[in-house]
């Protein structure tokens, strides 16, 4: 039934350039038995086994095998954009499988391909695409998750045997939350490298964890962390190394290597810059989180929007009850999230295209500060937005939304961890602002913090004037007004943050950490303002490129809604800065209500155009039959005709 | 270790008048094997059996048996306040047990005791306290959850046999989400009563569901709904009746009865008023939801606050890392929720005292409109506040907060349903406003809707002037300023809503449902403003009554924080209404940041003074050992001395 809109122009536009690959994956998932039923009632072991089987199935798909070989051999073929498209579909089918795919190919694979040399890739990653073994990614430690620079795992070089000795010196150095830790064969382990008694900072090593029969290697301990809120199919564990010896060749050597006679060399001199370069090389994986969050959001929205168009409750006296989507609160709770899901779709595509371009031109991702800032910011914004969206979907579907059959609870529990893993969101927002600041410094040729702050503080203010124009000339219902408003906010927050930090650090000689910490609320506000602005701009650009008139009109409404919602959320700030008057602020609220009302029926078309197979949707309240919960079934609602109004006279067929 | 603060004056003050009873329950739970381990890794059947065992244990406690007999025999002994105290502790130990206790004693028991006559109570409820059988509460139907007046289950009186025939006429009439449906013996079933072909509206009937051996009664079908997001120990099911015959005596007859020869009589003539009276009699149960949400919030806060004082991450260059509570974002995320938990403690007590007073004076709860409004509003505010709080606790504890051992995920999943069950929150907020409106009408002797609107619109405006005074005279850091601000907001929203509805219904002759629906965002805003105002007032009153100087000072800070947080959240509204200037609005933000910072260390004392047994806290990151997750253990943090600052020099003991 979901195939109804398969060929719609909007569906194709939302899919983007790899729509054919996506359709192939959709077909493969739809016909595979492993993906035909939900797994909420399995034991932990059953969940993990099923996820391993699903992962194996996905890796074994011809499309996927070909694609993984591209990862190794040819990065120029828009590899990242295509990867993210595949990832989103796998996550739609099962979040645990998507996350485990991310661990094996994105994190472990990304470490080997981005930090290793070609021979290392050949040896440690190509076999993954041949299903010979799987890998894991061991960065986080008990003592250091967010502050990853502080990791304590040791890697001492022993020139006598030309080996590294990987060791866990204390409890806080234990590698924790490692995905695939109970099943995987190799780990990409980050450890502090010491050569000849000299510390060279964190490096990444390939450490064999267990052989293909599952027997642990000597000196390696793996502790099962077992039960989590969600992602039950992902086996997270703790890795402890007791003087584990690995060959010299197991140091991934793109950013640093040790010669046979124990001489360390690296293309990057500063230890700190070297580690930054390694982290930057892993950026594409971070964008994967945004795509995973989007997959969850879209599923939640399909389910909630369809049920809201089926379910009826309350109504005018002596008349039939109305569809719950007609309640003002209901459309106000759901529609802004649908607009945000569209904005994220286009913004993620923009970021992945930027990455693909950079990689195809052989550029260093690290030097692209605006890309680093955007990806970090998108990770935080999208994962929070997803949780907020799923929570509204859960509440807007009432008791039905609390039942596991209807999918929303598991989606929420699975994706809850996204806001803190692979970079806690609050830390990500600080990365955004640091990257933006560094970007300015680079552009202006300064390097000391104080210089940067001073320059930033003055340069930003120059750009403000253009924004002010928007206030008088445009109307609030104009997309330009909204674009200027979000841009204005970012710039003012940026300028005022620079001024505050400058005053604290330069004038008052405050210690930097304390000064930064006292501005943290400001920092996170600026970072989100930055992401908000980019999402609205990218949404607006995507509309310009949309050729089909009806789609253009539909997307324009949702884009206005997204912009209105962003400005509405921050209207207190705009009022404080006299950018909105009390009257225009109230108009923004009315505009939000009116836009949400006006798109509520078209929302049905949009969620169908997400083109998600019904075996992924699963929820009976969204029209997917489930013999285990016949009581939850509601047919897929018809798109309301023009004659349908708030006081719809359609009869409810409540009789058996 | 939690006993450290057991005897503190603040702990006693937070416990209130039934501190001794609460201590007894704490001791009983702490020494009972059933409550010594968490149950997140059980199968559905195991969870349900354990919950049934736990419930049996609780019901069998001498304190509890005595208390339940009070429910039947003597309602004057502050029964509700005491019940809620016990409920909160049972919910702390296990939410499923608390909810099931609520179903059996609060909902089923409440229905029998409040809607039945003494003989009926003797027959159908006293045996529950003797552990002879358990009951369930069957109001919600598939087609009608929120709009409960629309229930379709039928109860036809058959004068020939002097029986009622309980029947499910269609799928939408099936009783759904019924707690204890797979284990309970009797159900309090709401059905549309028809006598002699005349409809008398919904009434409540005692229907035998299964005998004490678990065999279902003829004509009754029970379908297991099985897997939910949380509350796995509660067996929710669907009840279907196929012309089930029950004796005439099984109609709970306080608000309506049928004589042997088939004559219906009721003390209340209007069908609508009659059902309102029945619903009002069940109000105490609704307050139970607020207490359940409070139990979850307090647990989340204990865990998150303790871990935030133990865990260190980031810090000034070349110095030890700081405790994560020192990060501005961390205390800003947690402290307002701690203040709200305190406000809710005092407000719930106020509401329960009002109920106890009313019942002891033999008053009808229905006529107490402000109490009805408060209880409905508190249900919505507290359950949303709980979810927001637990989400912050989850995120503020990072990956550890995602692990089941650390309790937060299960608390969140268990309490997620509170926002939609026993009255969807959006519906509850509409109840608040309707009760407030009716209260005005009653006071003024009007009854038609239009009259009420006109009167309300004008009368409310008279009360506004006093509020305006606050704007010029007081400082924003003054509690009076905050109290006046929240009161002002409620009144303006009330007046403007009345004016809008009046214009739509009276002038434009709009249909009422449509007019109301077009103001729904306004309605929900007013309802929350009402609850906000009451919580701040009750917090302020509770401080006045606190005799211990140190506690008084501590609570005052948290009360200021609660008020500041409420005004900060709505600062856009205050700016739109010129109640705050841009400058004072920014000051409110600074005040919020400063208050959160100033209470972050004292938060450790407050959470300890919640006095929750460590077997209920469970979380290793909060200092409770768990042999299954030794890797998650962090000792209970010491209260920081005055010398501890942001740049604490305390060494981290990270070595093994």
Automatic annotation (TrEMBL), chains A, B:
<dbReference type="GO" id="GO:0071949">
    <property type="term" value="F:FAD binding"/>
</dbReference>
<dbReference type="InterPro" id="IPR006091">
    <property type="entry name" value="Acyl-CoA_Oxase/DH_mid-dom"/>
</dbReference>
<dbReference type="Pfam" id="PF01756">
    <property type="entry name" value="ACOX"/>
</dbReference>
<feature type="domain" description="Acyl-CoA oxidase/dehydrogenase middle">
    <location>
        <begin position="137"/>
        <end position="244"/>
    </location>
</feature>
<feature type="binding site">
    <location>
        <position position="140"/>
    </location>
    <ligand>
        <name>FAD</name>
    </ligand>
</feature>
<dbReference type="InterPro" id="IPR009100">
    <property type="entry name" value="AcylCoA_DH/oxidase_NM_dom_sf"/>
</dbReference>
<dbReference type="InterPro" id="IPR046373">
    <property type="entry name" value="Acyl-CoA_Oxase/DH_mid-dom_sf"/>
</dbReference>
<feature type="domain" description="Acyl-CoA oxidase C-terminal">
    <location>
        <begin position="479"/>
        <end position="622"/>
    </location>
</feature>
<comment type="similarity">
    <text>Belongs to the acyl-CoA oxidase family.</text>
</comment>
<feature type="binding site">
    <location>
        <position position="179"/>
    </location>
    <ligand>
        <name>FAD</name>
    </ligand>
</feature>
<keyword id="KW-0560">Oxidoreductase</keyword>
<feature type="domain" description="Acyl-CoA oxidase C-alpha1">
    <location>
        <begin position="281"/>
        <end position="437"/>
    </location>
</feature>
<dbReference type="Pfam" id="PF02770">
    <property type="entry name" value="Acyl-CoA_dh_M"/>
</dbReference>
<keyword id="KW-0274">FAD</keyword>
<protein>
    <recommendedName>
        <fullName>Acyl-coenzyme A oxidase</fullName>
    </recommendedName>
</protein>
<dbReference type="Pfam" id="PF22924">
    <property type="entry name" value="ACOX_C_alpha1"/>
</dbReference>
<dbReference type="InterPro" id="IPR055060">
    <property type="entry name" value="ACOX_C_alpha1"/>
</dbReference>
<dbReference type="InterPro" id="IPR002655">
    <property type="entry name" value="Acyl-CoA_oxidase_C"/>
</dbReference>
<dbReference type="InterPro" id="IPR012258">
    <property type="entry name" value="Acyl-CoA_oxidase"/>
</dbReference>
<dbReference type="GO" id="GO:0033540">
    <property type="term" value="P:fatty acid beta-oxidation using acyl-CoA oxidase"/>
</dbReference>
<dbReference type="GO" id="GO:0055088">
    <property type="term" value="P:lipid homeostasis"/>
</dbReference>
<dbReference type="GO" id="GO:0005504">
    <property type="term" value="F:fatty acid binding"/>
</dbReference>
<feature type="active site" description="Proton acceptor">
    <location>
        <position position="422"/>
    </location>
</feature>
<dbReference type="GO" id="GO:0005777">
    <property type="term" value="C:peroxisome"/>
</dbReference>
<keyword id="KW-0285">Flavoprotein</keyword>
<dbReference type="InterPro" id="IPR036250">
    <property type="entry name" value="AcylCo_DH-like_C"/>
</dbReference>
<dbReference type="GO" id="GO:0003997">
    <property type="term" value="F:acyl-CoA oxidase activity"/>
</dbReference>
């Amino acid at each position: 039934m979901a195939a109804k809109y398969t060929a719609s122009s909007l569906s194709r536009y939302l899919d983007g350039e790899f729509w054919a690959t996506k359709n192939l994956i959709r077909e493969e998932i739809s016909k595979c038995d492993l993906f035909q039923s939900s797994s909420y009632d399995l034991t932990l072991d059953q969940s993990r086994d099923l996820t391993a089987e699903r992962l194996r199935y996905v890796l074994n798909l011809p499309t996927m095998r070909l694609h993984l070989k591209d990862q190794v051999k040819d990065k120029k073929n828009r590899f990242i954009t295509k990867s993210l498209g595949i990832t989103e579909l796998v996550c739609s089918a099962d979040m645990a499988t998507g996350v485990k795919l991310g661990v094996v190919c994105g994190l472990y694979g990304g470490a080997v391909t981005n930090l290793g040399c070609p021979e290392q890739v050949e040896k440690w990653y190509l076999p993954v695409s041949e299903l010979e073994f799987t890998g894991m990614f061991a960065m986080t430690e008990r003592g250091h998750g967010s502050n990853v620079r502080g990791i304590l795992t040791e890697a001492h070089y022993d020139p006598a045997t030309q080996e590294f000795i990987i060791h866990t010196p204390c409890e806080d150095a234990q590698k924790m939350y490692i995905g695939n830790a109970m099943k995987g064969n190799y780990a990409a382990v980050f450890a502090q490298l010491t050569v000849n008694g000299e510390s060279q900072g964190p490096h990444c090593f390939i450490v064999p964890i267990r052989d293909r029969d599952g027997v642990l290697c000597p000196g390696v301990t793996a502790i099962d962390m077992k039960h989590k809120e969600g992602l039950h199919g992902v086996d997270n564990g703790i890795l402890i190394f007791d003087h584990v010896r690995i060959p010299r060749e197991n140091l991934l050597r793109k950013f640093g290597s040790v010669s046979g006679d124990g001489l360390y060399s690296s293309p990057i001199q500063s230890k700190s810059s070297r580690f930054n370069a390694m982290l930057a090389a892993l950026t594409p994986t971070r964008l994967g989180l945004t795509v995973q969050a989007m997959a969850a959001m879209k599923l939640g929205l399909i389910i909630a929007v369809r049920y809201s168009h089926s379910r009826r409750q309350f109504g005018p006296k002596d008349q039939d009850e109305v569809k719950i989507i007609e309640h003002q609160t209901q459309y106000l709770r759901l529609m802004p999230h649908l607009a945000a899901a569209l904005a994220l779709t286009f913004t993620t595509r923009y970021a992945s295209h930027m990455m693909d371009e950079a990689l195809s031109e052989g550029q260093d991702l690290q030097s692209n500060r605006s890309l680093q800032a955007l990806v970090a910011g998108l990770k935080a914004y999208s994962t929070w937005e997803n949780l907020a969206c799923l929570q509204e979907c859960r509440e807007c579907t009432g008791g039905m939304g609390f039942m596991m059959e209807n999918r929303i609870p598991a989606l929420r529990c699975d994706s809850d961890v996204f806001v803190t893993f692979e970079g806690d969101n609050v830390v990500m927002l600080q990365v955004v602002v640091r990257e933006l600041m560094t970007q300015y410094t680079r552009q202006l040729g300064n390097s000391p913090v104080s210089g940067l702050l001073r320059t930033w503080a003055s340069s930003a203010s120059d750009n403000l004037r253009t924004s002010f124009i928007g206030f008088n000339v445009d109307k609030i219902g104009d997309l330009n007004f909204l674009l200027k408003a979000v841009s204005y906010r970012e710039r003012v927050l940026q300028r005022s943050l620079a001024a505050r930090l400058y005053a604290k650090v330069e004038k008052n000689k405050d210690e930097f950490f304390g000064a930064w910490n006292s501005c943290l609320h400001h920092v996170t506000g600026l970072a989100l303002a930055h992401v908000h602005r980019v999402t609205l701009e990218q949404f607006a650009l995507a509309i310009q490129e949309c050729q089909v008139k009806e789609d253009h009109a539909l997307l324009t409404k949702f884009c206005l809604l997204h912009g209105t919602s962003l400005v509405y959320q921050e209207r207190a700030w705009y009022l404080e800065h006299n950018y909105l008057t009390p009257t225009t602020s109230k108009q923004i609220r009315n505009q939000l209500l009116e836009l949400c009302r006006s798109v509520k029926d078209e929302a049905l078309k949009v969620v169908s155009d997400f083109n998600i197979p019904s075996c992924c949707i699963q929820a009976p309240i969204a029209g997917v039959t489930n013999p285990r919960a016949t009581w939850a079934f509601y047919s897929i609602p018809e798109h309301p005709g023009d004659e349908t109004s708030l006081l719809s006279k359609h009869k409810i067929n409540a009789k058996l």
